[in-house]
Design brief:
Length: about 240
């Protein structure tokens, strides 16, 4: 047990140093990410850490991809992918809290572990669909009105982006069943991630676009929906 904790500390320490050195996270954001990872590890073990790490890597790659093109279109990250504490919390806090709940309530651990995967499936789908959909999308639609709309605006989606989002959710689902064992949960995680991604777009069009809530709030609610969708699907099957 002590050896495992030492390894975890080493892994998280390397992650903090690497993310700061390569300017992917601010130092406070990296520290927050490490704390969230600790909660996830408590309830979901190394599979949870792998899922969280994979989300981070996929998000960084998607954000960095064709960055100059996205900047020229006016839709790239303003600080070129350097993420803050609030952004880390928006994407990972739900999973961290679920990890602690899984640790404290062992009888419900399988449910909480699935909800962790659902939250990251949703976060991954949202990030990949928006970042790659912006680059490779052909036609862009307002998800509420279904009318043609401007690339990169809140609540605007493309078919290509939605497909990329499903692929992202599938990666998270594959990692989950690789660690926890094959089950129908693979499909539940994909569905949960897709529902969360669509909800993110709806919130973007209906609320964020009107400056009623910010992007971090939308992303946080996105992970909440992904986790709750996983829970409801778990209870149905």
């Amino acid at each position: 047990m002590y050896t495992e904790i030492i390894v975890l500390i080493a892994v998280l320490g390397a992650g903090v140093i690497g993310s700061v050195v390569f300017r992917k996270l601010t130092l406070p954001a990296a520290a927050a990410g490490a704390a969230i990872a600790g909660g996830i590890f408590a309830g979901a073990g190394w599979t949870g850490i792998l899922i969280m790490g994979s989300f981070f890597v996929l998000a960084v790659l998607a954000t960095s991809w064709k960055q100059e093109l996205k900047q020229s279109l006016g839709v790239g990250e303003k600080i070129k992918g350097l993420r803050t504490t609030s952004q880390v919390a928006a994407n990972g806090l739900v999973a961290g809290l679920l990890g602690l709940m899984a640790f404290w309530m062992e009888e419900y651990r399988p449910l909480f572990q699935l909800m962790i995967a659902g939250s990251f499936s949703s976060a991954t789908a949202d990030t990949i669909s928006s970042e790659l959909g912006t680059v490779y999308g052909k036609k862009f639609y307002n998800i509420v009105s279904f009318r043609n709309d401007e690339r990169g605006e809140n609540g605007v989606v493309s078919i290509e982006g939605l497909i990329f989002g499903i692929i992202g959710s599938s990666i998270i689902a594959a990692l989950y069943v690789a660690g926890m064992g094959w089950s129908i949960h693979f499909f539940l995680i994909i569905v949960a991630g897709t529902l969360g991604n669509l909800t993110d777009s709806i919130l973007g069009a209906a609320l964020e676009r009107k400056s009623l809530i910010g992007n971090n709030a939308v992303n946080f609610l996105n992970t909440v929906v992904g986790a709750l969708a996983a829970m409801f699907l778990y209870l149905l099957v």
